[in-house]
């Protein structure tokens, strides 16, 4: 049985409205369990509640209701000791720009009561390709390097659970790939990682499980493969040589429709298991046997991003989905 390292039950957070404005619900009765050693990706549009959820676990936001159990302990009662086992890479660059890299990272280790360990600090800096910059002031670093320093500070006290809030925001593709490799190595070392990201390919490539949050509510949590199978679908458009006035009887029962004035036959159905591809092949054979010529097939399998957008839109979150996926 897989151990639950973080158990969130009924977590809520409501902010009082300013002036005559109504209260704002940032978290709405959130239940979420995180397994030891996994990489969990939390996806959601702007204002969905991702950063508020992280803040509630890490002690920066006081919840209105609910409980957070970390490592079997109630965070509200044993916050200081449990927080020492949690690392956080915030979305914002909250660092002293005049400090030097090595000193900033070493200081973070001391904040959590860990004894000085120059060898460990060197190891962290080398892992993140920061060792050559150890004596540089933070203000002299690029945006990507500053982001790496934030990760180094979060790792300095050897946490068992690591939160990464948009860890690769503003980072170029090469540095982003390096960070993915670093996160993968952390998982191999037994660190549990929870990340929010607006690069859904990160979730597709790295996460064991994925959660979707919108308007403070968890819409979905499942293994990545299970999500793709349950909510994925195939879309295929047959470009017909001649327009059809109506759907042939042989295609009744298939999830197809005529579009573009009868010039396209569009299939939407199946799931992420390959059923959709089989049905598209059947439809192609039926068209041939019915003497209906087509000049091409444009076929597309759902990505995790397609599923995410559909979920958010189904919840009435079209504006959030079009506005990006950042926290």
Structure write-up:
The protein is an alpha/beta fold and 327 residues long. Among the domains are: 4-85 and 160-229, 3-Layer(aba) Sandwich (Rossmann fold); 233-301, Alpha-Beta Plaits (2-Layer Sandwich). Helix content is 34%, strand content 27%. It has eleven helices and 14 strands. The protein has helices spanning 50-58, 79-83, 101-111, 118-127, 143-155, 173-188, 200-206, 224-231, 275-289, 304-314, 318-322; strands at residues 4-15, 24-35, 39-43, 65-70, 73-74, 86-89, 161-165, 192-196, 209-214, 217-223, 234-240, 256-259, 264-269, 294-301. A six-stranded mixed beta sheet has the order 6-7-8-3-9-10, sandwiched between helices. A four-stranded antiparallel beta sheet has the order 2-1-4-5, with helices on one face. A four-stranded antiparallel beta sheet has the order 12-13-11-14, with helices on one face. Helix 3 (101-111) packs parallel to helix 5. 35% of the residues are buried.
